[in-house]
């Protein structure tokens, strides 16, 4: 009995001078139709090879697929054969079995025709695998690759993929990039690309199973990793706007370690009712300019930039500008999960997509402005450097918000984080090459307007990493945290004003960001002290917080503590102390400086003392769990860690409501007490209530604590995999 009853496939192997393409299509068919493997009903699979793979045969097969499928269906398209590009018409096309280079108009299949057919398929749960650009490369070993000349054949597979893309969430994965070939390794019977696809559809990549299926995100990750691993001169391409991380294949029934056999809900679930994927903010027929919003790896553009794109789209002064999001959709799962940080591989995938989009998808525009956030800023910088000069000259504005431009400071305190973030270290080849190339390319100045933006309370990216590679006149500070600086829901903020005024050639000055916060961020503590200390009796709670932090920054610790003890706003205010402790904790986790860690311990301890006196149980468990964490990391005092963990648990019992932070605290406290199953149960409940920012914060504490306690960096560790699944997926 077939498992995936609502899964459909159209598989095309052209044949002719490329007999391996027929083998490829048949090999995929054999996997999909096998009840013990993928489990597609045979009647749901259309296989076209050799003489059946004509222009009319291909178009008729699409019509059959259109009739058979429903909105809840999943659809896999596979094409193995030649692709072409007709220069006079700038026309991309597929080369059917009956293609005639003389009568090309009646025998080719144009990219636009494919896009129209795909648009008629009712389901958005669709992926298209393109194994094109074979040329001579299909019959040569990798050792001879350097002698091949791709200019005699289609050398823009990624361009063909973008012309087919309907922009509605269809996934497209092409076997190679521009000016590359698709190879077959010596001794193999399938192309390298198809060989990797076969492996992942069979579940060969798994040694641990959360479910007995292979989803689209796993397939894309495996192909992008394994193809260049085995042949460094072949790099796949993929678009990033994936509507749904749907099931593509079942795992063979004899696979071991399948931990969840409850399959019916996963198979039958109709995800077509999920939130609509946003692929455009504004598009007009006459616009000659475009703004691209490039987000980081923790979410999608809508979650990252809030209402800013919608407000800009309605701005009359920006008539003539179209606007699009760009980056992984929420249904794509990066290697490190939905986190602030990402692997070099994921950064490169996004870089390739941006470069290809500038050339093809957005090729009609004369000017391109790019608004980037977090690691999206690294993607943008690398892409700009790698563009041809003619395309680079189209870039008119670049905004880099909260980007670790100079990399992350290395620390010896936590080897697990070191391993994961090695590509982002300031001394890593990726960062060093990026900075050197940027400096060399733009040593005479920028051909575009550049704004590098830091947030006053960025808990992840230091001001030094953000600003140090740029001139002061290019740097701007706005209010907010790493996320809130760009996720603005109203117009009344400096981020929106900065983007709007810069694009419309108007001057910008901070209106909504306090001068004191900017000075503290930039280390100008004396300026803050000289302004606020003389009016100490009249400042509000925020002013007091800024003054205390400035005094601490200048080493005037006794004055700071005196204020905390005597000022009316600070007396018995454990929350204020917790805020200050949290700032030092974040600084400690950024560079693991012992002084910052000790300051965090001091303020959390004082805050806990006050909370105990006031019997404020919310504050007790909050400060206690932070002290448990810091005692583990700073002092390696496991007994103290367990003592504070138990104190946190006792305090939560006094709180009737199961809030998200209460549940997260119980998850962390039970981790410290060694009860991993109870810890997982509470963390699982907290994850259902947490937003992206909260999930990343919880994961950071839990992952750091667990890897420190267990002295392991194994990404296949059960608990580490659990944390990633619950908080970064």
Give short descriptive properties of this protein.
6-stranded mixed β-sheet, Rossmann fold, alpha/beta, 3 domains, 29 helices, 6-stranded parallel β-sheet, 729 residues, globular, Serine Threonine Protein Phosphatase 5, Tetratricopeptide repeat
Task: Note down, in words, how this protein is organized.
The protein is an alpha/beta fold. The chain folds into three domains: 7-272, Rossmann fold (3-Layer(aba) Sandwich); 289-513, Rossmann fold (3-Layer(aba) Sandwich), CATH 3.40.50.1820; 523-727, Serine Threonine Protein Phosphatase 5, Tetratricopeptide repeat (Alpha Horseshoe). 45% of the residues lie in helices and 12% in strands. One of its GO terms (biological process) is proteolysis. InterPro entries: AB_hydrolase_fold (IPR029058), Caspase-related_regulators (IPR052039), DUF676_lipase-like (IPR007751), Pept_C14_caspase (IPR011600), TPR-like_helical_dom_sf (IPR011990), TPR-S (IPR046880). Pfam families: DUF676 (PF05057), Peptidase_C14 (PF00656), TPR-S (PF20308).
Q: Going across the major beta sheet, what is the strand order? A: 2-1-3-7-8-10
Named at the architecture level, the CATH assignment of the largest domain is 3-Layer(aba) Sandwich
Helix run count: 29
Low-confidence segments: 134-153, 256-273
Determine the mean pLDDT.
84
Helix fraction, binned, reads 40-55%
Q: Find the CATH topology of the largest domain.
A: Rossmann fold
**Number of structural units classed as domains:** 3
How much of the sequence lies in strands comes to 5-15%
CATH class category label of the largest domain: Alpha Beta
- Main sheet makeup: 6 strands, mixed
Quick one: how many beta strands? 17
Cα-based radius of gyration, to the nearest Å: 28 Å
Q: Could you tell me how far the N terminus lies from the C terminus, measured between alpha carbons in angstroms?
A: 31 Å
State the secondary-structure class: alpha/beta
Rough outline: globular
Domain Peptidase C14 caspase: 8-229
Pfam families: DUF676, Peptidase_C14, TPR-S
GO molecular function: cysteine-type endopeptidase activity
InterPro entries: AB_hydrolase_fold, Caspase-related_regulators, DUF676_lipase-like, Pept_C14_caspase, TPR-like_helical_dom_sf, TPR-S
